[in-house]
Design goal:
Layout (H helix, E strand, L loop, with lengths): L3 E6 L4 H10 L10 E6 L10 H6 L1 H15 L3 E6 L7 H6 L5 E3 H10 L5 E5 L4 H12 L5 E6 L10 H17 L5 E4 L8 H8 L2 E3 L1 H15 L2
Parallel strand pairs: 1-2, 1-3, 3-4, 5-6, 5-7, 7-8
Length: 223
């Protein structure tokens, strides 16, 4: 079987998985592993609260166990495609393969693109949850601000409204908080990275791309 990187969307909204799938398409290279994007059917419509994040931990573990059993040595890496990095440590306990969270990878990638990092959240309630992750990573001093667009995961399907909100919040992060790199704080924003980067004139990191590119490097190098 061809080597595979599994990118798992922990919510049950297929449109989010489809956006991630499109975003990582440039990483599907000749001679490289297959990149498969999966939807966790047991997940909530969006991971928007700590309860949502906690609720997907065991289903993610069971899904990875099933993949390990079915695909054996073909699996090269897993990507947990939610900016809360839900279940990241639990999944790492049940596989020897690399498991990458898009929040960790998105922030680490942003640190190579600029010094002052701004993050765009979907909802205000996500900010404290993300701040705990940044604190655990020891990078809080590099995050100048995180601001919400005040839209749910499902509402991100409205592309024009999403872009209007992303541009407004991105401009505030750039002009008021002096961010020189922006991280999209939800996988459901995946289709808008390039557009937003052009609109703002500063680097924009899409974390699903960041994590999958790291997984690809590990797979190709045998790390």
């Amino acid at each position: 079987m061809q080597p595979v990187i599994f990118v798992i969307n922990p919510n049950s909204t297929q449109a989010v998985t489809d956006a991630i799938d499109t975003a990582v398409n440039p990483l599907r290279v000749t001679g490289g592993p297959d990149i498969r994007c999966l939807t966790l059917k047991e997940g909530p419509a969006g991971v928007q609260t700590q309860i949502d994040a906690d609720s997907v931990c065991l289903p993610l573990v069971e899904l990875v166990r099933s993949i390990e059993h079915e695909h054996a040595d073909a699996v090269k890496a897993y990507v947990i495609a939610c900016f809360s990095d839900p279940g990241l440590q639990a999944v790492r306990e049940v596989t020897k393969r690399p498991v990458l969270g898009i929040s960790e990878c998105g922030i680490l990638t942003a640190m190579t693109r600029g010094h002052r990092i701004g993050v765009i959240a979907i909802l205000r309630g996500a900010i404290a949850r993300h701040a705990r992750l940044f604190g655990a990573m020891g990078v809080t001093s590099r995050i100048v601000a995180e601001l919400p667009i005040d839209m749910s995961v499902v509402e991100l399907a409205d592309a024009q409204r999403t872009r209007d909100a992303l541009k407004r919040v991105g401009q505030e992060l750039r002009d008021v908080h002096m961010a020189d790199v922006i991280v999209l704080g939800c996988a459901g924003m995946a289709n808008h990275r390039q557009w937003l980067e052009q609109a703002l004139g500063i680097a924009v990191v899409e974390p699903s791309q960041a994590a999958t590119s790291m997984a690809l490097g590990r797979a190709m190098l045998g790390w």
